[in-house]
Amino acid sequence: MMESIYTWSMLLSITSFAFATAMTPGPNNFMLLSSGLTFGYKKTLAHILGVMVGFPIMILAVGLGMGSVFEMYPVLYDVIKVVGIAYLLWMAWKIATSSSTIRNSDEVKKPFTFFQAVLFQWVNPKAWVMVITVMGSFITSTKHAFLQVFIIAFIYLCIGLLSTNFWALGGVYLQKFISHEKSIKLFNMSMAVLIVLSVVPFILKG
């Protein structure tokens, strides 16, 4: 049955693509790294789960029908891209100006909730590029399209479990080396700059 939907070599290709795109630097991973350092693992867990589940949900939504809406109204993609870039720039500013003593304070600023992280995928330019690329590259059969979409989403769910925890725990690990207020502040500013730089290619594409 599986061979009629995907060959094993195709499954390996999808898994390799998912691993490369999920593990490499991008807005989600930079924000998880910063959150792990600033808030610790326990308070970042909702953010982790939101990213891990949110992107496969996005794949399912686009693959099972929403993609046709964007084909009918291409301007929607441009609107989402502009909103996404603006939101990422705002998030970069929030991270850059966040308190370096946030873990020990009662400030209003809090880590992402599960639903915030899920919704963030829809305004994340990198997520849209990933969805469009994976749909165009790995949906190979109209007969088995629905099953292929579910398989791709499941693969990203599994890879997401690894990638989100890797980056968040990376931030937690850095707590051993970055504990002074100025160091945390500098780190958060660096993450903000990297988020801005990750947006530049999407801006240049126009």
Automatic annotation (TrEMBL):
**What GO cellular-component annotations does this UniProt entry give?**
plasma membrane
List the InterPro entries hit by this protein, alphabetically: LeuE-type
| Recorded topology in the membrane | Multi-pass membrane protein
GO terms assigned for molecular function: amino acid transmembrane transporter activity
The signal peptide annotation in the UniProt record is none
Which compartment or compartments is the protein found in?
Answer: Cell membrane
Write the record's keywords in alphabetical order, separated by commas.
Answer: Cell membrane, Membrane, Transmembrane, Transmembrane helix
The keyword Repeat appears for this protein: no
Q: Where are the transmembrane segments?
A: 6-24, 45-69, 75-93, 114-139, 145-174, 186-204
Q: Which Pfam families match?
A: LysE (PF01810)
Q: Which GO terms describe its biological process?
A: cysteine export across plasma membrane
Q: What is its main location?
A: membrane
**Name the record gives this protein:** Transporter, LysE family
Question: Which species expresses this protein natively?
Answer: uncultured Sulfurovum sp
